[in-house]
# Entry
Amino acid sequence: MIWASGWRLASAVSNAGGLGLIGAGSMYPEVLREHILKCQKATKKPFGVNVPMLYPDIDAIINIIIELGVKIVFTSAGNPASWTAHLKKHGITVVHVVSSVKFALKAAQAGVDAVVAEGFEAGGHNGRDETTTLTLIPAVKEAVQIPLIAAGGIASGNSMLAVMVLGADGVQVGSRFVASEEASSHILFKQKVVEAKEGDTQLTLKELAPVRMLKNEFFEEVQNAYKQGATTEELKALLGKARAKRGMFEGDLIQGELEIGQVASIIHDIKPAATIVADMMIEFNLAKKATSLYNFKK
Amino acid sequence: MIWASGWRLASAVSNAGGLGLIGAGSMYPEVLREHILKCQKATKKPFGVNVPMLYPDIDAIINIIIELGVKIVFTSAGNPASWTAHLKKHGITVVHVVSSVKFALKAAQAGVDAVVAEGFEAGGHNGRDETTTLTLIPAVKEAVQIPLIAAGGIASGNSMLAVMVLGADGVQVGSRFVASEEASSHILFKQKVVEAKEGDTQLTLKELAPVRMLKNEFFEEVQNAYKQGATTEELKALLGKARAKRGMFEGDLIQGELEIGQVASIIHDIKPAATIVADMMIEFNLAKKATSLYNFKK
# Structure
């Protein structure tokens, strides 16, 4: 959710009854400070910050989070052992994002309070095993005792109920909120998400860090580089710097990196975050009632 | 389900209250005739035959199915327009297997009675779009009006309920029945399925026909061929003939092709087919009851 989830989206989600998250991955420390302060003014409900731990300014980020009294941190892209104890010592609830049972066990051992298990269909950075949400959630549920939040492919109340039936205690929703009014994503990118059809995203750049993105000219250049046997160094050079910002924040749909989940194919409109949350809850409750109609006889 | 689903498994599933399918993909016409006759003796319940339409002896296969009075045919791997009208003229219910909305629409236009929508996590042959079951089912539900059967990643009553919440009217279960007593799969392959962990399967050979298989020495040879820039012809030569039979039927775990879904990682035992069906129904009903406990408040 880099370049999408700033204070506007996070506070709107929290005000609507969800847990809003500020995505620190695209923010310099002082930018994050500003977003946290604005979010605190915009909502009295709890919200959290997602911190990719491989971030160069990670120490400054963590210090700001603690200093400003943020109560919930979602960590990703790194070893959960690095920061969990430190954050928990400051009374912070720590949730770690994983893509496999192996990493879920590692996170539980590191003492996190909950894990987000994210399947292959999710947008952005993703696991190497390509395990889909439908397979991943029951597998993680079987392996760890701590609360389990499902992610990847969830954009409706029905999919929310579906993953809870598989064992999840809650859901993390990304792509659906990119197509929200409050997301800081460029409007051209939001429109591209709404127009996306099946097969329009693909997981690529597995040699660097696997990432799911929309297929555009930049994506095709990456695929051509593969066909010509590009080295990891050449792929890094091709990716360059600020591709994600260029695509998702500046709206360069041709040469930018456009991270979104497969579920974009069934997202058809840009809505206020509060409407997204309310609609999901209506769908969830209807789907829950409908299960009583599922009867089989021999 | 080639080399797994003969008359023993099909009749056991039908006797247990499911709809057993004979997989014709690995059978010469006269072998299929024998399996249908034996299945008719072993069960009075309905059963079906799955027919990959690119099969060389397709005319003979279809004639035998009609001659022997089989009432349900699942077609796959080919154009649903080729045989649907002919089969329906003979009173046969036709279900077509698809991996995308595009092919689901094509199947509906061809007049099939229902579609199986199979996600990326499924074993064996698979779609090019890599759409996972969690994304595919709501998308197909949105697009077609005919009954929708979900496949890929379903091996428990919970996953069965989950995909029905997403819009499926029923489920097709493959991998779980490979690890059944009645499957004709080699015992060494069944044991390998039961031992499989997350990340042990991968979709490969996309240039020929994408297929998900267990990672063994043969799989590694395919990956090495890719690294060396193998042509489609070279890949075909490497695959050779009868790889699937060698692996799944003859039990060559090293050089055979071992087709199975991601969900193998959460299949832990070989059971009679009737126990698999009964256990799924128990899980399904428990999961259904449990949904009444899912309550959220702001």
